[in-house]
Amino acid sequence: MNKIPGICLAGITAALLCGAAAAKERVNGLMGHYGYLVSYPAALEPSADFQGPVEKVDFLPKGVCDNGEQVSCAKGGWVSFLVMPKWYIAKANGFRSFEPYMAAVLADSKNNGEAPTMTKTNVGKFTACKIVLKSPKGPFNEMLYISGKKVYYRFAYVRGTKYINALVKGLEEVQPSDTPPAGWDK
Questions:
Q1: Cα(76)–Cα(139) distance, rounded to whole angstroms?
Q2: What is the Cα–Cα distance from 32 to 87, expressed in whole angstroms?
Q3: Residue 1 pLDDT class (50, 70, 90 cuts)
């Protein structure tokens, strides 16, 4: 897996792209490959790479995850962010719209014994579903799926993570794309 960094912006550049409040609140920005912009608190450090055509960005609290222990990192504020082209989800699983995809995610969580509940919601102008896992198999117990123009976004985190609201509110589609980086399928 090749590391492909996102474009991280800080200071005045972030203020221009994310609004004047970004400089005041010490917010940085990450411009992802698929044409989205996420503003994030300066207390977080993003790490981006690709898993096939899926872009993965881990937002890690600075100084919290030095030991690499996933549960400690998650409780400390780690947010895992995936960006998945809709065509890829349709090709891999046959789901051509958000509702059947979310039903399948919920069913899969039930089959894994994670006792999930799902709430449909809106996040700004996006349609979204929040899944809460009562018996998670991994380090996260909540996932927020958002349907963008050409991609699905997924935030995974521990309930009560102080950074999740800022990350979700900071998501914007600047130049929506579903074209993966060259060589993703090799």
A1: 11
A2: 18
A3: very low
CB 62 within 8 A of CB 44: yes
Q: Where are the alpha helices (DSSP H) in the chain?
A: 11-18, 20-24, 70-75, 86-93, 98-111, 164-169
Distance in angstroms (rounded) separating the CA atoms of residues 17 and 163: 20
Asked if 132 and 115 touch (Cβ cutoff 8 Å), the reply is no
Question: In which residue are the tokens 């898993």 written?
Answer: 51
Query: For tokens 């030991």, what's the residue?
Result: 67
pLDDT at 16 over 80: no
Question: Over the stretch 43-97, which tens digit does the pLDDT of each residue have?
Answer: 999 999 999 999 999 998 887 776 666 667 777 888 999 999 999 999 988 888 9
Q: Among 66, 78, 49, which Cα is nearest to 180's? A: 49
Residue entry with tokens 């221009």: 16
